Amino acid sequence: MIVPLTHLIILAGILFSLGLICVLIWRSNIIMMLIGIEIMLNAAMLLFVAGSNHWGLADGQVFALMIIAMTSAEVSLALAMVVYLHRRKKTVNVDDLRELKD
Amino acid sequence: MKTALTLIILFPLLGAIFNVLLGRLFPRRAVELTACAVVWGSFAAALAAAANYNGPTVVEIGSWLSSFTLQAGITVYLDPLSLSLCLMITFVCGLIHLYSIGYMEDDPCYVRYFALINLFVGAMLILVLAENLPLLYLGWEGVGFCSYALIGFWFNKTKNATAGRKAFIVTRIGDIGFGIAIVWLFKLFDTLSITQVNQMGHSLPMGVITALGLLMLVGAMGKSAQAPLMVWLPDAMAGPTPVSAQIHAATMVTAGVYLLMRMFPLIGLSTVVVAAIAVTGTLTALYGATCAMAERDLKRILAYSTISQIGYMMLGVGSGAITAATFHLLIHAFFKALLFLGAGCIITAMHHEQDIFRMGGLRRSLPAVFWPFLLGALCLAGLPLTGGFFSKDSILAAAWAHGGILYSTLYLVGMFTVLLTAFYTFRMMFIVFGDRGTKTPPAPVQPLPGVMTLILLPLALLGLAGGLLNIPAYLGHGLLDGFMAPLNGAGEHLSHGVELALQGVASLVSLSGLGFAWWYYGGKRRKARLSLAEQPPTGAVAFLQAGWYVDALYNLIFIRPYKYLAAILWERVDEGVLDDSLDRMAVGLGRTGQSLGRWGGGRVSLYMLSLVAGATLMIGWFAWEVL
After folding, report:
1. Among the four given CATH numbers 3.40.50.300, 1.10.287.3510, 3.20.20.450, 2.40.50.140, the one describing domain A5-90
2. pTM assigned to the model
3. Partners of residue A97 in chain B, C-beta under 8 Å
């Protein structure tokens, strides 16, 4: 075991926090928000892999593969929507998109 | 017997229901005819009951209130007292109904009038015939309601509507006492049958009987306009005159006296109650007579005379002389109905002028009213050999026979009131009918419907000859005395000599009252008094005209504090505390909602922040739990 589990958990925590902060504060651009979500997902994935490695079970790695697949689908879909949105609204500012409220 | 008793009560009620529901669909004559026919039908039924009468009977007509131990059916009790009252009520009310046809000739609201007046008679008959207290109370409140509706009959004028409300509220004050007495009696005896309650009085401690008697006296005070609850009666003159006649003569104010007579076997056991009844009656008699001496309004004079005469009846009850009180009640019904109906004739003829000082000379212009009215006045004044003389004298004799300092004083006050009564009665007569000293011919009078003057005759004859109902013992056997003997309390019996002497004194006193009235108002001096009456009243006259300022006193000690308290409760407590706190709560909730609503403003970043904050809190909570 090269890297101890605690380090991995701490790294994953830091990554997750960075992603979260990115989602919370970068309101002016929805693409940055998606990137933040992506970072958070990667932090979770790292935690899965670390756990799988630590307990010697394959479940975590299987799950990480599934998350990779899901994330790529999600990102391609979301980016397509962002492009479409930008064409309609001429903006990518999150706070300007409030039609659902009305 | 059962049929007759049922019909006595049912006839007026059916008439009232008919007039209420269908009166408008029928021509005027039909309404008038129904209203009169049902009362005379009731009289016929009462006659039939009298013909078949042999001893007191209890007849159950139907069931009414019945739960657990409370059994109060529609049960009637026919005994000498209720029978004689029934005959009187139906007869006098029948005449008043006939008179009403003439009096209400031009009134567009005749349907309401006849319906109410029929209901009035029905309620009074229920009251008189009731065998149990709840049924009696039904009639009691029935007459209260009808008097309210009829006193305020012309409710377009504020004054009339206020008079109706005043009558209703003041009598309700008395009813509180009566209501408490009924509930208490039920708690004591588990029965409300009058005949049973009256027999069980001996098993109670004296204090309880005294309290019950005083509570019933309070009820009677309200209904019969006795001091201190007499203030409603003079104002009750706002109603149509036949209604006043009916209230005063037959249906309303005698109810209180009747209640005391009915419950006398129970409450008569307590000497305190009996004395309280006698004192109340005497004081009220004096009060009414003094006020009537200064009053200018013809109908209010008669109202005060009613208060005074009812006071005599209370004195009779308080002296244990139920027969004498009933005797006076009957005779009073005849001559007071006569006087009121006569006054109605006078007022109609004078174009609705009620101030006696604006009248005069009616002896010649209204002879058909003058002669019956004179007979009524003679009866009221208690001049010798009229019915009123014998009945009033029998009450005073009973007070005298009772003995003791209290009753002797009451006798003297009563005798003084006889003097006042004769004085004020003939003051009224001289001013209204006399014309000496005025040069101008009397004002032209409005012609009266024939039925109005015709009705006065039978009443005048009955009032005059009413003494025959119960002739004094030295002349033979009194009809009422024999009939009602079982009802009387333990009264002393006077020797014939004493009775003759008392009657002699009473005749002298009433004749001297007449003399005083002549000396002050008669002949040529009438003109001087008329000019004197133009000036505003001063001193004693003002005091008496204001009814001893009792109204003002009540206004000061009850009505004003009440209004003040009501204003506080309304403006400070209701609007200030209750309404305001609710208002503030509503405003606070609204504001909270608004500020919460701002959260849901559609800003994704805010939602996200809330989500993270919530998740952090939950995770923190779980971590706290685990650690």
Report:
1. 1.10.287.3510
2. 0.80
3. 604
